[in-house]
Amino acid sequence: MGSKSKVGPAGRFGARYGATLRARVRNIEVLMRAPHKCPKCHSKGKLKRLSVGIWTCKKCGYKFAGGAYVPSSAMLR
């Protein structure tokens, strides 16, 4: 098997769906899983996405509504 440094998390799709769509999925998933700062306790890297738009802090237990893929979307700023 070849290197998956370019495809990242979208490597699970193999050769399906086209390069542009796989790149889009990769960018979204990398942003979503990156460490984010909690708006309440300001601890970095403790936020977890529960479902679309629902985020929780593993340290303080704060649960809030945010963006679908990142805790604060452009509309919420």
> Structural class of the secondary structure composition?
alpha+beta
Count of alpha/pi helices: 1
The largest beta-sheet arranges its strands as: 1-2-3
Per DSSP, what share of the residues sits in E-state strands of 2 or more residues?
Answer: 15-25%
Helix content: 10-25%
| Topology as a string of helices (H) and strands (E) | HEEE
Major sheet attributes:
3 strands, antiparallel
Write down the overall geometry.
elongated
Description:
- With 77 residues, this protein is an alpha+beta fold.
- The chain has 2 domains: 1-33, no CATH class; 35-77, Single Sheet (N-terminal domain of TfIIb), CATH 2.20.25.30.
- It has 1 helix and 3 strands.
- The chain has a 3-stranded antiparallel sheet with strand order 1-2-3, with no helix packed on it.
- A hairpin with a 2-residue loop joins strand 1 and strand 2 (54-57).
- The longest helix has 15 residues, at 19-33.
Task: Based on the model shown, name its key terms.
single chain; 77 residues; alpha+beta; N-terminal domain of TfIIb; three-stranded antiparallel sheet; 1 helix; elongated
Indicate the topology:
Layout: H1 19-33, E1 47-51, E2 54-57, E3 63-65
Brief sketch in words of this structure:
By secondary structure, the protein is of the alpha+beta class. It has one helix spanning 19-33; strands at residues 47-51, 54-57, 63-65.
